[in-house]
């Protein structure tokens, strides 16, 4: 059962999350049917702003049939690893209760273990817990995995509990009848397994909540199995034990147990403290301490606590308020402990000024208090100095009350041995000094107090002061700012040591009482105080002995909008800065012009990105004497500040801030000259057009001075926003942009000095600069500084690593390598820019395609480069005029070769739907590449046709590659022939629309007469769309216009859908100046007719008639032997004389010897012919069908059957030869029934001629019989040898399968065959091979020469056949005695077997294979006619191997 349950669980966890999700609303019911292992998923959303902490979702699945499981998850679909709730029980009904859902969005999925129907209902509602009374039992009963909820109100003002210092909630479960019942409690909402503050544990089923919050508390009972229970919740008072001062208490405390104590604090003296000492006396355990004034402490509420695991906890409470204090001890684990509470009074000693007090021993954790009276006014400060001998005393002071560690005016808790606490300008009155001994050891120290006067040195704006300050000492400065200013700034220079800066408004600053401070240890620190006015005090504190400098700066400012592009007047004094901010968010210049009105004074203007800079950081500055101007030609997009400063007082000025437009000069004719002054810019622009050059080179020539160049596309360049730059001092700066972005490019020239220059822009094809290098080839070259040299290395395979080795012969060349794109110093897949003598890059398993190598001259250099890789590109041979369809892949070479051996015209034509042509390179004798080629065709040529005149007779290589997109589908063909150029040959009329052509495409219709003139090797392509159900007839003729006799002829090739290739669908050679063709069932779509002259020297006029006519809907198109007529109801055939049947396919009169008949069979149709037994007589008949339809060899099947008319599945003989002639021999039958002949057109309509002749007494028959015997002898020997050599069982199904597989050369041998002598096969192997070879040669010789030399072929065949027959007979005689019966049966069936092979041997070798196919298709018939053993011999004889 456990294993079954795990399987069920696993199945449920495999819910498919890809199921369609169905929305379901509250209370809705959904019915559904699922197939086995199907899933259905639903989404449920709690509507409105529901209170989730008090809500329940109920999911009920009622099964009507089958078996299901259900799972639910918040916010996402459940999966096999992650779900919140699941029910996979075997019960028919399932339910899930989601208490206090953590999200309003839930996904529920149902899984069917087998075909199931179910009803699903989902609803949610607010839960109203049952209210229970204090100390009252409530009983209940719950089913499996269900919960009940209860609530009780805790009110501390309730008279029954208000008199107690604390209470606790006690919840107890009793009367439980089942197992696994859990109790939860929470104050925030329904308590569940996932959300609760308290949980019952073990067998106690009890929860205690000490000092609960005053609120409603909720309890939840969860039953995993059905159970009864009783819940009792009581509010119980906590009555602590009272401890007296210094009373020792010891006890044992259990784990999770609380023990409470009460201690009364009495204000017996002005100064006292409370000490609580908790010591764990057991070796193990852990007790925690909680303290609270006025009420019982808890985990949630306490004034002090200590949760450490140390053996002793010592807690000191300074000056505790009088009243009841409650101490709680919590047993984190079982332990024994002792507790002691002590209230101690602290004495206050009078401290006199300039008096020294020595404390030789102060207990750890205790206080030592002094009272110091100040009689004078605020013109002094209070100093408390301590010299420490032992321990770690901390110092606190407080006005009019003793300090504590929580309440004080000033403290010093340093761990140093000597320190001073200073309080500046203390109030007149009582000051309490408290010294607390921190830590666990006693303290010993000397303390002294004194007061002294304090003064501040007045400084002014712009003034710099310097000084020294001792450690823990102060120096003070003050400044009167007067009216409010934009900013008041202090610059602190750290010369020696570590000075700190404190600043306060209208008072002396202190470390704990300052408005601003700067405590960094930086050499220079700036403290900025905005909107300052009146008097400010600055204090320099010596963190260590220090030397410093301090400068004050005042900044006055006006809004930028009030000044920009207008004249502003004002005055300024030393130490002040007048500042204007300007936001730059567009391409403009920034100008500031200032005029000094006051004479004999200095005024400085600056523009900076630093806030109101005054000499620390600026982009430009000028001294107005009397007028100063700053111009930033190309500020970046950010905030700038224009500031004025002076070293004089009351300097009058006028200021103008402008943002003029930037002047951009377009570069015309790719070259110009210019000049720029020091620290200024000049900007230029040029345009990169689409499909333009893929390489742009910018050359900056330095004529005078030092110009720097910056380049950026689409936006003016700057120091930070740029594409490339060159700031060298070379005479020439070269920037190369590979594959530039289309649009406007900007050039910025910056004057490092006053300078003049020229700019030249060169556009080029980067491919023309790439040298193709073969594997292992070494190339050396020289490079000027900042120039590039490029190479291409082709990886034809990813199996061999690509290794690139660059040798730095002189200088510092860098090497960059990228796949598919030429690299540069910003874009490269691999690079080596070291200064090593030999730089190597090894690329493992390189991607097939072109890899580009870029060599960059960091300076002038000499180098050599070598790449090693498998770069053997595959070359495909092309046929003249044949269409090739390929997919051109980006960066992958595809190479072709065509041998031009006649004509003087060479044409490349490309067909593609892509807007871009790939790059096609043509080269004579060698493979082409991007740089080495003779001709090219690509998108830039704006043509998809390339014509080359006066070509040489040689091999031409065509290499194709795309650099523009990932793949391009193209079709292309190459044609070479005669010249057809109207300019050089006025008689050429092949294309009246073009002066240079060799093929003209004319669009026509299916009913048209097309005429034209052609000469040389020109051709015309006629294209029309066939769109009707009619037949098509083509009539072609031509005339020689000059009337002179010649051997000129025209050919007409017809193709469906595609332009005619070397093997068109139909081909007509009009040597007699006319030709015709009729298609009874042409296919719908585009048809092409190619009219060719075959190098005619005469001007020929052609006529091409395309005629469609209606032959109706008669069956089988009347088999070509009738006329189709139409009645009011249907179409019917009127058959020719001698033919009958609804489709005129039956030759009712019967055929006789010597008959010659013609016929037409439509695609998929058949014609039937009958031969009467009386007409045949006792002689063998040769049936020969000659296919007359052009170029449709292999589309005729010849059948015969004795008796009833044959069908395509019932026949005696079948010939499926791929040749144009089909034939076999029909033997006389003894049953006096007719023989039927069927001609079938399986895929296309055909025309044919069939001839009936006698097969006896002819040289052809003798020759056939001779070959039959010879081939039969070889077949028998091979089969017998293999039977002896191999014995393998086989079924009839295996025999059929192996014979149907044309590539299978496995022999099949009957295991019961007696021919199993292994010695015989050894003695006959060589003779069998010889015989097989000779018979094959004779068959081939007969096939090739039958029409031309019947007599010769007959003689040769008979001779060889007789020789092989003699060998066969000798092999038969060598068989042992036990084979005699088998040999006799072979001899008796020899004649029958020969007849079955006759027509196969009269055709090509493929016909023989088809005949073998027929015999295997009907194995029972073969076994019946020649016996099982002969069948094995025959099967082996015609197994399709090279030696058969």
Describe this entry's structure for a reader:
The chain is mainly beta and about 1450 residues long. It is about 10% helix and about 50% strand. The protein is built from twelve helices and 99 strands. The strands form 21 sheets. Strands 36, 38, 41, 43, 45, 47, 48 and 50 form an eight-stranded mixed sheet that branches. Strand 90 (about 1140) and strand 91 (about 1145-1150) form a beta hairpin. Helix 5 (about 1260-1285) crosses helix 10 (about 1390-1400) and helix 7 (about 1320-1345) packs antiparallel against helix 8. The chain is flat, with a radius of gyration of 56 Å. It starts with a helix and ends in a 7-residue tail after the last helix. Residues about 1-20, about 980-995, about 1040-1045, about 1255-1260 and about 1280-1444 have low confidence and may be disordered.
How many separate helices? 12
Q: Low-confidence stretches at least 5 residues in length (pLDDT < 50)?
A: 1-19, 978-997, 1041-1046, 1257-1262, 1280-1444
Distance between the termini: 67 Å
User: What overall form do the CA principal axes indicate?
Assistant: flat
Number of separate strands? 99
**Which class best fits the helix and strand makeup?**
mainly beta
Largest beta-sheet characterization: 8 strands, mixed
Helix content: 10-25%
What is the mean predicted local confidence, pLDDT?
77
Radius of gyration: 56 Å
Beta content comes to over 45%
């Amino acid at each position: 059962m456990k294993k079954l349950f795990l399987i069920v669980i696993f199945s449920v966890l495999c819910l498919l999350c890809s199921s369609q999700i169905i929305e379901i609303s509250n209370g809705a019911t959904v019915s559904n049917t699922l197939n086995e292992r199907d899933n259905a998923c639903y989404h449920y959303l709690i509507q409105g702003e529901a209170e989730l902490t008090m809500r329940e979702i109920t999911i009920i699945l009622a099964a009507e049939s089958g078996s299901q499981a259900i799972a639910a998850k918040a916010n996402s679909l459940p999966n096999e690893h992650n779900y919140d709730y699941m029910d996979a029980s075997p019960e028919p009904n399932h339910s899930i209760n989601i208490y206090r859902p953590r999200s309003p969005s839930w996904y529920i999925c149902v899984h069917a273990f087998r075909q199931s129907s179910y009803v699903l209902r989902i609803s949610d509602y607010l839960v109203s817990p049952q209210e229970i009374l204090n100390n009252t039992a409530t009983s209940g009963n719950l089913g499996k995995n269900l919960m009940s909820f209860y609530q009780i109100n805790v009110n501390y003002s309730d008279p029954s509990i208000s008199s107690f210092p604390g209470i606790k909630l006690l919840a107890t479960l009793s009367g439980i009848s089942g197992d696994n019942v859990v109790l939860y409690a929470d104050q925030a909402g329904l308590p569940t397994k996932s959300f609760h503050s308290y949980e019952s544990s073990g067998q106690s089923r009890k929860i205690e909540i000490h000092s609960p919050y005053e609120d409603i508390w909720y309890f939840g009972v969860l039953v995993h199995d059905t159970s009864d229970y009783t819940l009792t919740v009581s509010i119980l008072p906590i009555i602590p034990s009272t401890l007296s001062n210094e009373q020792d208490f010891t006890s044992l405390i259990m784990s999770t147990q609380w023990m409470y104590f009460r201690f009364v604090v009495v204000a017996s003296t002005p100064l006292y403290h409370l000490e609580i000492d908790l010591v764990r006396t057991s070796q193990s355990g852990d007790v925690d301490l909680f303290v609270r004034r006025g009420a019982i402490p808890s985990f949630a509420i306490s004034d002090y606590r200590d949760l450490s695991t140390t053996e002793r906890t010592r807690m000191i409470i300074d000056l505790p308020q009088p009243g009841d204090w409650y101490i709680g001890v919590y047993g984190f684990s079982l332990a024994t402990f002792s507790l002691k509470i002590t209230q101690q009074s602290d004495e206050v000693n009078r401290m006199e000024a300039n008096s020294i007090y020595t404390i030789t021993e102060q207990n750890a954790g205790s206080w030592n208090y002094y009272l110091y009276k100040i009689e004078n006014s605020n013109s002094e400060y209070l100093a408390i100095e301590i010299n420490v001998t032992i321990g770690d005393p901390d110092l606190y002071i407080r006005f009019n009350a003793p300090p504590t560690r929580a309440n004080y005016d000033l403290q010093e808790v340093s761990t140093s041995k000597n320190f001073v606490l200073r309080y500046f300008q203390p109030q007149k009155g009582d000051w309490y000094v408290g010294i607390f001994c921190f830590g666990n050891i006693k303290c010993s120290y000397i303390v002294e107090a004194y007061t002294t006067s304090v003064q501040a040195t007045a400084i002014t704006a712009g003034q710099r002061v310097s000084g020294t300050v001792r450690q823990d000492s102060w120096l003070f400065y003050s400044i009167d700012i007067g009216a409010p200013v934009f900013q008041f700034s202090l610059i602190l220079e750290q010369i020696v040591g570590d000075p700190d800066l404190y600043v306060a408004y209208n008072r002396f600053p202190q470390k704990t009482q300052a408005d601003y401070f700067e405590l960094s240890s930086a050499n220079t620190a700036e403290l900025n105080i905005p909107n300052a006015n009146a008097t400010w005090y600055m204090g320099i504190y010596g963190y260590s002995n220090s030397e410093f400098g301090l400068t004050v700066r005042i900044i006055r400012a006006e809004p930028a909008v009030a000044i920009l592009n207008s004249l502003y007047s004002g005055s300024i004094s030393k130490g002040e800065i007048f500042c204007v901010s300007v936001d730059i968010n567009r391409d403009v210049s920034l100008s500031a012009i200032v005029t000094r009105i006051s004479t004999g004074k200095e005024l400085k203007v600056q523009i900076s990105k630093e806030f109101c800079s005054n000499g620390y950081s600026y982009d430009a500055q000028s001294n107005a004497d009397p007028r100063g101007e700053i111009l930033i030609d190309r500020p970046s997009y950010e905030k700038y500040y224009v500031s004025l400063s002076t070293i004089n007082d009351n300097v009058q000025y006028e200021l103008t801030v402008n943002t003029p437009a930037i002047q951009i000069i377009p570069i015309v004719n790719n070259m110009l000259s210019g000049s720029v002054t020091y620290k200024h810019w000049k900007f230029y622009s040029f345009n990169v057009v689409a499909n333009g050059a893929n390489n742009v080179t910018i050359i900056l020539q330095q004529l005078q001075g030092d110009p720097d160049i910056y380049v950026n596309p689409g936006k003016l360049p700057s120091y930070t926003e740029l594409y490339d730059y060159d700031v060298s001092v070379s005479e020439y700066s070269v920037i190369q942009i590979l594959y530039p972005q289309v649009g406007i490019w900007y050039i910025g020239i910056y004057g490092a000095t006053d300078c003049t220059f020229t700019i030249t822009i060169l556009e080029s094809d980067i491919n023309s600069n790439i040298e193709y290098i073969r594997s292992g080839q070494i190339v050396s070259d020289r490079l000027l500084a900042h120039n590039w040299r490029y190479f291409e290395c082709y990886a034809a395979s990813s199996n061999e690593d690509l290794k690139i080795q660059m040798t730095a012969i002189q200088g510092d060349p860098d090497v960059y390598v990228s796949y598919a794109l030429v690299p540069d110093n910003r874009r490269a897949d691999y690079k080596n820019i070291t200064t090593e003598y030999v730089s190597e890059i090894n690329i493992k398993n390189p991607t097939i395609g072109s890899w580009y190598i870029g060599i960059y001259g960091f300076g002038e250099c000499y180098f050599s480069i070598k790449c090693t890789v498998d770069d053997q590109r595959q070359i495909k041979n092309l046929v003249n005029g044949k269409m090739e369809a390929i997919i051109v892949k980006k960066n992958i070479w595809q190479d072709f070769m065509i041998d031009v051996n006649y004509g003087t015209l060479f044409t490349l034509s490309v067909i593609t739907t892509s807007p871009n042509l790939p790059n096609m390179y043509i080269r004579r004798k060698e493979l082409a590449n991007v740089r080495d080629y003779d001709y090219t065709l690509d998108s830039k040529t704006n043509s998809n046709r390339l014509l080359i005149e006066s070509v040489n007779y040689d091999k031409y290589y065509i290499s194709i590659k795309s650099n523009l997109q990932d793949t391009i589908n193209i079709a292309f063909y190459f044609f070479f022939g005669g010249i057809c150029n109207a300019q050089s040959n006025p008689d050429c009329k092949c294309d009246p629309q073009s002066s240079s052509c060799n093929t003209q495409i004319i669009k026509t219709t299916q009913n048209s007469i097309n005429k034209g003139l052609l000469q040389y090797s020109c051709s015309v392509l006629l294209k029309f769309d066939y769109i009707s159900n009619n037949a098509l007839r083509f009539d072609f003729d031509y005339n020689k216009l000059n009337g002179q006799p010649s051997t000129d002829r025209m050919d007409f090739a017809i193709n469906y859908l595609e332009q005619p290739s070397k093997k068109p669908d139909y081909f007509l050679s009009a040597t007699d100046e006319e030709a015709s063709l009729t298609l009874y069932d042409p296919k719908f779509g585009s048809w092409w007719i190619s009219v060719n002259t075959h190098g005619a020297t005469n001007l020929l006029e052609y006529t091409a008639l395309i005629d469609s006519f209606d032959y109706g809907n008669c069956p089988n198109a009347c088999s070509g032997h009738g006329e189709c007529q139409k009645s009011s109801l249907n179409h019917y055939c009127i058959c020719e004389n001698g033919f009958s049947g609804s489709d005129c396919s039956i030759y009712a009169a019967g055929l006789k010897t010597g008959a010659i008949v013609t016929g037409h069979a439509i695609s998929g149709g058949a014609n039937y012919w009958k031969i009467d037994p009386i007409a045949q007589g006792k002689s063998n008949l040769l049936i020969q069908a000659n296919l007359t339809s052009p170029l449709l060899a292999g589309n005729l099947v010849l059948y015969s059957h004795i008796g009833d008319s044959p069908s395509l599945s019932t026949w005696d003989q079948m010939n499926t030869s791929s040749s144009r002639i089909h034939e076999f021999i029909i033997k006389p039958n003894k049953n006096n029934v007719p023989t039927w002949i069927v001609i079938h057109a399986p895929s296309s309509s055909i025309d044919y001629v069939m001839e009936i002749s006698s097969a006896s007494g002819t040289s052809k028959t003798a020759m056939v019989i001779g070959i039959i015997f010879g081939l039969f002898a070889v077949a028998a020997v091979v089969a017998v040898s293999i039977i002896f050599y191999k014995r393998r069982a086989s079924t009839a199904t295996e025999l059929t399968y192996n014979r149907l597989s044309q590539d299978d050369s496995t022999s099949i041998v009957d295991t019961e065959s007696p021919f199993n002598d292994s010695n015989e096969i050894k003695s006959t192997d060589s003779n069998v091979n010889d015989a097989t070879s000779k018979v094959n040669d004779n068959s081939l010789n007969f096939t090739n020469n039958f029409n031309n030399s019947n007599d010769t072929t007959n003689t040769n065949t008979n001779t060889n056949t007789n020789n092989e027959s003699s060998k066969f007979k000798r092999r038969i005689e060598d068989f042992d005695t036990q084979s005699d019966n088998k040999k006799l049966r072979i001899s008796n069936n020899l004649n029958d077997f020969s007849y079955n092979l006759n027509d196969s041997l009269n055709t090509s070798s493929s016909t023989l294979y088809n005949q073998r196919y027929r015999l295997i298709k009907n194995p029972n018939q073969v076994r019946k006619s020649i016996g099982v053993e002969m069948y094995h011999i025959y099967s082996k004889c015609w197994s399709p191997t090279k030696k058969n």
